[in-house]
Design goal:
The chain is of the alpha/beta class. It has two domains: about 130 residues, Hexapeptide repeat proteins (UDP N-Acetylglucosamine Acyltransferase, domain 1, 3 Solenoid); about 140 residues, Orthogonal Bundle (serine acetyltransferase, domain 1). α1 packs antiparallel against α2 and α4 crosses α7. The longest helix has 18 residues. The radius of gyration is 19 Å and the shape is globular. The two termini are about 35 Å apart.
Length: about 280
């Protein structure tokens, strides 16, 4: 990795958002769908198909994201079977999806319930398809993983290479323009806003993309380039270009990025505060 911007003590691990068991989350989601159907009768059929007819959170999620990605040569039925199969083989996909949805509900002031992000947030849909694609990648089914990644990019404007491991409780807000390269790593409890790039610095091969640790906030338009590390609980300011390692708990901003402060929030990704420290003097 490149030189660190400045040395710092290791940050403590981020605190966790409250866990919701699958049954608790599913019952809440169903209740919200029932209420929405009563308020807006035009949505009754859609909500029945998307939520109410299903027996579990995982089945509803597989059906919903399959419909979002379906096209002529890959109909919804086949995609739903694929997603369900991945979730059956690896239950961590469903566990992570639940944590992702809780993260949205907790961190996004526009998310007044679980139902709206579940149905409509394309950052969430893209991420859950990525989890399926990453499972395929690990199984050696790379042609299909690439196909799904391409479709996700076309439909949701989120481009994540299927090789990328992504932790739990990740919030991709808005999603549009997010690009994450092949050898990137994303930890737990990370928040990523629109137009963020985790990219390389040129045409080098091998391990060439950023490693984003737990609790990091990547603000809108941030570009993090090269095989560098963004330490736990760091914050990258909007529009910044990061070319060197970021120490744990640091706030960096600018082109190129420089340290402008240290985390006042326990976990920037959970606080979702994109503001920067005021200059002194």
């Amino acid at each position: 990795m490149s030189e660190t911007i400045v040395a710092a003590n290791d940050a403590a691990p981020p605190s966790e958002e409250r866990e919701l068991g699958e049954s608790e989350l599913w019952q809440t989601l169903r209740a919200e769908a029932e209420s929405a159907a009563e308020r807006e009768t035009m949505l009754r059929g859609f909500l029945d198909l998307a939520v109410l007819r299903h027996k579990s959170f995982g089945r509803a999620l597989a059906s919903l994201i399959a419909g979002k990605l379906a096209e002529r040569f890959m109909p919804a039925e086949r995609l739903e079977d694929l997603a369900r199969g991945a979730m059956t083989e690896d239950s961590a996909i469903i566990d992570a999806a639940r944590a992702d949805l809780v993260a949205i509900r907790t961190r996004d002031p526009a998310a007044e319930n679980f139902l709206t992000p579940f149905l409509y947030y394309k950052g969430f849909h893209a991420l859950e398809w990525h989890r399926v694609g990453h499972w395929l990648w690990q199984q050696g089914r790379r042609d299909l993983a690439h196909h799904l990644s391409s479709r996700v990019s076309e439909v949701f404007a989120v481009d994540i290479h299927p090789a990328v491991p992504v932790g739990r409780g990740v919030f991709i807000d808005h999603g549009t323009g997010v690009v994450i390269g092949e050898t990137s790593v994303i930890g737990n409890d990370v928040s990523i806003l629109q137009n963020v790039t985790l990219g390389g610095t040129g045409k080098e091969r091998g391990d060439r993309h950023p490693k984003v640790r737990d609790g990091v906030l990547l603000a809108a338009g941030a570009k993090v380039l090269g095989n560098i590390e963004v330490g736990a609980r760091a914050k990258v300011g909007a529009g910044s270009v990061v070319l060197k390692d970021v120490p744990p708990c640091a706030t960096v901003a600018g082109i190129p990025a420089r340290i402008v402060g240290w985390c006042s929030d326990m976990v920037p990704a959970l606080a979702m505060d994109q503001s920067l420290p005021e200059r002194q003097g």
